[in-house]
Amino acid sequence: xxxxxxxxxxxxxxxxxxxxxxxxxxxxxxxxxxxxxxxxxxxxxxxxxxxxxxxxxxxxxxxxxxxxxxxxxxxxxxxxxxxxxxxxxxxxxxxxxxxxxxxx
Length: 104
Hints:
Elements: E1 3-10, H1 16-30, E2 36-43, E3 53-59, H2 62-79, H3 83-89, E4 93-99
Antiparallel strand pairs: 1-3, 1-4, 2-3
C-alpha cells in the first residue's frame, strides 16, 4: 500500500524563496528513486493556515521510503549540508508525519 510523507513548514516571509530554491535539488533526486510515485510542494495562497508550505511525497511502500531517506542523507553528507541547521538558520520549522491515503 502506498504511503505518503507529509511535511508542513512555517517560516518568515523572507525565507520562502530560499526554501523553494534549496528544496529543488532534493526533489529532483527523489524523483529518480525506486518506489517514488509522486510529489508536490504546495504553497499557501489564502486562508488562515499557519503553514506556508506543505510538501507531499508518495512512496510505493516503507522500504522505498527508507531507501529515499538513506539516499537523501548520503547526498547531504556528500555536499556537506546540514538540513536541520539550515532550517534553524532561516527560522523555518518543519513537522513531519506518515499518512495513508483514504479515497473519497
